[in-house]
């Protein structure tokens, strides 16, 4: 029994190190703190087996991160600047030993006294700098995915490294889960519902390729849409859309990205909420287009279908609305069922984006 428990702990430790490496390698350029819950969701969305992500596993990982990063000065496998980046992104405290190491290396570091969180850091050579956002800026920038999260190949995600097994917790782990201060650390579950409050009433939607309505399933009657309060503003939704499109990393999407950028620059701050009912109504058509848009020849511009579905799943996750629960489940099933080599015409991707933009700015 003791050997099995030790093996489970070693396996969990390996998975935790892989998660920390993912933060450093995929989110390493981010210059604003991000709630841990959102990082875990985005990590899961970049994997093919998102449906197996367990809330308890997220809590276990959170406690383990808090424990390991308390003694970050002795953490192996990362450079000191990578450790600084992890502490900054997660808003974790800097212990005194690690602070002294950084100062001895010639780095400049300033901490918030009460919580020992990094308020300012500049590397010795001046090439790496991080600063705590102003108090009137929300702690989550929905650009966190922009150009940084890559959708992973099947070989990279088949090992189930994302998940912790549903096993009985050891006594110390269960005790840790019961300690509120351990669980509340970096636990801003509402982070996905916050951000820069801006209005983005885009008048450019007609410049996109119009939806190919001939490929959409006809509907005899409009479905009844449950009314849930929207979790995001129009501007936030456009930010999420921009970040998700950038994560697709297709050069042919440059014009689409430029149009989204123009809309975000043009329209000022506003508390208007996105019409979630319109997004809920249109997502089934977008998913249908994604599953039916097979290329007719090899010369057509194409996108990996699973990557596009993961893009849609990521968009739904970051909107963080109960109204999208059914769409999220549907996307998870589609991702599991889709062949890794399946392709979709780029035109269909643009059609889906056009529908999303119309829904967001309705």
From TrEMBL:
All copies of domain SPK, residue ranges: 19-129
Protein name, entry field: SPK domain-containing protein
InterPro entries in the record: Peptidase_C14A (IPR053315), SPK_dom (IPR006570)
Organism placement in taxonomy: Eukaryota, Metazoa, Ecdysozoa, Nematoda, Chromadorea
